[in-house]
Amino acid sequence: MDLATFLVQCLNALQYGLLLFLIASGLTLIFGVMGVINLALGSFYMIGAYMAYALAPAFGGAAGLGFLATLGAGLVIAVVLGYVLEWAFFSFLYEREHLQQVLMTYGLILVFEEARSLTLGDDVHGVAVPEWLAGSIPLGGLMAYPVYRLFISGVCVLLALAMYAVLSRTRLGMAIRAGSSNREMVASLGVDVKRLFRVMFAAGVALATLAGMLAAPVSSVYPGMGNQVLIICFVVVVIGGLGSVRGAFAAALLVGAVDTFGKVLFPQAAGVLVYVLMAVVLLWRPEGLFKAT
Amino acid sequence: MRARTALLAAAALALALFPFVGGKFGVDFVTKTMVFAVLALSLELLVGQVGLVCFGQAAFFGIGAYAVVLLTPKAAAGPIWWLLPAAVAASALYALFVGALSIRTRGVYFIMVTLAFSQMAYYVAHDTPLGGGTDGIYLNFVPFAGPLDLAKAGHIYYFTLAALLAVFVFLAVLMRSRFGRALAGIRVNEQRMRAAGYSTYPYKLAAFVISGAIAGLAGALFAVKDGFVNPELMSWHISGTVLMMVILGGVGHLHGAVLGAFAFALLQELFKAQAIFGEFSKHWALGVGATIILVVALLPRGLAGRGSG
After folding, report:
1. What DSSP string describes A81-129?
2. Which of A229, A258, B185, B261 is most buried (most C-beta within 10 Å)?
3. Which residues of A touch B101 (CB under 8 A)?
């Protein structure tokens, strides 16, 4: 592997890892604060990707700022959807056993997948890269790196920083952090837990949807894409330590690197490497790399 | 208690009489569902009785199925009396390995480690020539079983029913034994069991191995019935589906697992029925999903959760 290839793979690993982080952070926060394992986040990744495909024509496709408008519209829909879902399907489940919530999210996955099949069909679609991001940067020799992938990484980094700022500097972030360490105590101190849960849920949904919309131009849009990403994100969350955003960030980059380089160096064993990584990490540290505090 | 035993006996009798009224399709469908009921029972032992949520049951199921196919001689049928125990032993062995490592973790971490180990088994079957790769392998000769001809739908039906009843009774007796009481104690309060002088690790490991062995039995039955194995038997979708069967039926009851398996299979068949839903039957998962959501909303403790404690 020469230097340019290595560099390209590094950038790919970074981009994949950061994208995983967007979904995994929602997953880990929702679990940490609400104690809910939300399997349906994978569906929102899929829904996001299909929205990027279906909404694009309405906003002028890949031309001009159409892509940003599509992202904005998709996000608004995702937040509304998140609020409504939490209200309709989860607000009465918190007292119940975890397994009941898991079963609920499993039911939602089936419904979302079929709803998508009914409205948009089962075809695989490509989504055009927005024109102003369509170029690529030469990396010496014959290698070049697409600008759009850098754009994804950039957006993810900005979001990660914003998330850090919200979590560490705002009142809402304080409530969230307190919620992950002791839910009952936060409720008894007078924080409006119901509202907090709804905001968290909607934020998780919005992040997963955004990840799907961003990924659509590079990964193409296909049925079942959510389930695949969901399992990997679970791996990320568990390696990082449940409830820890920092852990999810580190683990996402780690998983991105192992998966990307695994595919290049050991194509035979690429699929299993991530799971071997998880097993090794958990046997070494049974509660993940960063235990949530 | 006595009413429940009578109800269970009635259910067993109904299953025994079913082939006389059910058509060819019905017998095949119920055979397959009973195989999944055995698998669901194996998971119920862990989830409902010990409180260990295992998300890797498909690996043991798949290993049992592959064992039957791989151990069948190239040019002749193998005796079922030898293949079945071998499949069970193979699954139990893998369960011993997985359990010994994963029982150190707890809660969601346990869920994920068991998933990781089942995915490893999946990729071994999927990416190596050992088990025919992605294409899977055919079982060329249905195992030889004395007076029974397991290639006949009726015979495999009763063979599977016998296995289901045996597993059910075995687990019911097991849970009443001293060992079973200790498992229940671990589920309710592991700390207290430790304080009472129990070393909980070997108990949990033993339960894990028994569960893996039963899942292997289910896999072996599946291979004999279908005559075909492929890596998808070990995919996490199977683990997920079985877990959903157990939760749907009601965690904590052996009959809940069987009920869940039948309810899940019937729901799928119902929504797949073209006679009722016509064109829409293509989207059967929508109906199944919506029903699951309703069950969660309306029956907090699963189908078996009402009444019986």
Report:
1. HHHHHIIIIITTTTTS-HHHHHHHHHHHHHHHHHHHHHHH-S--B--PP
2. B261
3. 279, 283
CB A212 within 8 A of CB A41: no
Residue in A269, A275, A287 closest to B119 by CB:
A275
pLDDT digits (tens, 9 = 90+) for B181-212: 999 999 999 999 999 988 999 999 999 999 99
pLDDT above 70 covers what percent of chain A?
97
- In the structure encoding, which two tokens stand for residue B50, read together? 């010990």
pLDDT of residue A292: 53
Residues 6 or more apart whose Cβ sits within 8 Å of residue B14: none
Measured CA to CA, the distance from residue A240 to residue B40 in angstroms comes to 31
The string of pLDDT tens digits covering residues A136-158 is: 888 766 778 889 999 999 999 99
Task: Kindly state the tokens that stand for A24.
Answer: 């995994």
- Is A276 close to B120, i.e. CB distance below 8 A? yes
Adjacent-strand bridge partners of A138: A144
Q: What distance in Å separates the CA atoms of residue A124 and residue A189, rounded to the nearest whole number?
A: 50
| Bridge partners for B145 per DSSP | B148
Buried b / exposed e over B62-79, threshold 16 CB at 10 Å, is bbbbbbbbbebeeeebbe
Residue B195 exposed, middle or buried by CB count within 10 Å (0-12, 13-18, 19+): exposed
User: What's the pLDDT at B308?
Assistant: 38
Q: What is the pTM of this model?
A: 0.85
- Residue pair B187/B248 in contact (Cβ under 8 Å)? The answer is no
Whether A107 and B290 lie within 8 Å, measured CB to CB = yes
Q: What angle do CA B74, B79, B80 make, to 5 degrees?
A: 115
Handedness of CA B272, B276, B281, B287 (dihedral sign): negative
- Matching residue, tokens 């990484």: A153
Instruction: Kindly state the greatest CA–CA separation across chain B.
Output: 61
